[in-house]
Amino acid sequence: MSFGKTKAVVVTGIDGLVVDVEVSVGQGLPKVVISGLPDTAVSQAPNRLRSAMTQSELTFPDTRLTINLAPASEQKSGAGLDLAMAVAILAATRSLDPADVARVGHIGELGMEGSVREVRGVLPACVAALAGNVRELLVPAANAAEASLVSGIRVHPVRSLSDVVAFHRVRAQGKTLDLPWPEPGEEAEPEETGDLRDVVGQYEARAAIEVAAAGGHNVSMIGPPGAGKTLLASRLPSILPPLSREEALVVTSVQSVLGKVDGQALKERAPFVAPHHSITMPALVGGGTGRPRPGAITEAHAGVLFLDEAPEFKRTVLDALRQPLERGFVTITRAQQSVRFPSRFQLVVASNPCPCGRYTGSGAGCSCATRARREYLKRLSGPLLDRIDVHLQVPAVTRADLASGPGESSEEVAARVREVRERSARRWAPLGLALNAEVPGSILRSSPWSLTPADTATLDAALDTGNLTLRGYDRTLRLAWTLCDLRGADKPTKDDVYAALTLREGQQAA
């Protein structure tokens, strides 16, 4: 009985798991047994392995093969284990040096003709490999640029199983085979975020968007078609700071798992995701058939999730946002595994005031029945709206707005946003927090951060009358801290609290 072993990495959610691929060649009738909780794609690997090895003029053992994927307690999914299984078989039959093979990780799907095909999730796989002390990886040539984003790992691009065999046989002789890297593709054009000065008029709404960006607060906008709601939302990323290294790694890992990595560098800008109102719950929060996939809320992690025409979304889909908004992650549970996806995003929802969209001012142009208008906005549940800090009334653009000229640029506003975020990050650093929107209300209501009764009088009155929930109370306090930071003050005053409550209740414009 002979034995071969190598390393591979599987990705569950957006997290990688280093797998020991062990092969035992024993006596018996020709059969391949795969143990270690393989999914359907992994269980079907023997057909691909046999064909790929035959086409590469390598011998597939005509005997009993046992392939174990350790740790056996974790589900293994995807065809990215193909290459590692083929190499472990070649090591077990002594076609390759077992000692050399055992030191290197292998990622890739095998084509029937022996090619090594691109796989998804290579970036998080490389991060996991580095954490698991795997310092050298053979990956599909198409994934090589993505894999090289992780420093500390030596990446070798391979196009075929023959490349892999040649690589290991040369190394066994104490030499090095430098496999050719693919020609660098064109750098992906930076995603155009536009400029805030593109917004015509809407100075109060622009100021409110700045507050939301500075503190990481959620926003709701109600206004007629053409008022600029979508434009305001799409310009929000342009005033957000660049992603930190940690955020960029997570955001790019999500893109990798979704097969959307389009450049040779980590993402630097906050993502902006705007799903259509027909989106399903699995597509929004994650899941789907087979292995769980990230949804739109995970794709928007560290960025903005924009729901245009929010009342047109299914109510069950909208209400699925409630827990991720509070917790910053979503857990998808299946029979054999539970996957956690990050989902800390800024929610921006936009709505027309009624089905026809013309119920503004006196409402003379509206053709909707009174009941239809009332029921339209009720599609957004109270618990969801309670998790939104800034509520804006966005009026129609007037001729005076057209004549007023452009407002401040995104660059100017972004500088203030960055300053506020740096200020709040320094303040909350001892608590492991950065944004005002992340601070628990229990902290803001306790020393040394609590405000005086005189400062919170308007909040206390709203709480006493039932016009404000405790969640709303705490979220208004967070908003007050952001307004305070924008002034450069040390602590919110009653004016900050009143302004925060006004923003929350949507009374800043008619």
Features of the shown structure:
alpha/beta, Rossmann fold, five-stranded parallel sheet, four-stranded mixed sheet, elongated, ATP-binding, Mg_chelat-rel_C
Overview of the molecule:
The protein is an alpha/beta fold and 510 residues long. It has three domains: 2-172, Ribosomal Protein S5, domain 2; 196-410, P-loop containing nucleotide triphosphate hydrolases (Rossmann fold, 3-Layer(aba) Sandwich), CATH 3.40.50; 439-510. Helix content is 37%, strand content 16%. The protein contains 22 helices and 16 strands. The model has no long low-confidence stretch (mean pLDDT 92). GO terms for molecular function: ATP binding. Keywords: ATP-binding, Nucleotide-binding. It holds the Pfam family Mg_chelatase.
Distance between the termini: 81 Å
What is the tally of beta strands? 16
CATH class of the largest domain, anyone? Answer: Alpha Beta
How is the main sheet built? Answer: 5 strands, parallel
Mean pLDDT: 92
Protein name: ATP-binding protein
Keywords: ATP-binding, Nucleotide-binding
Family: Belongs to the Mg-chelatase subunits D/I family. ComM subfamily.
Domain AAA+ ATPase: 215-398
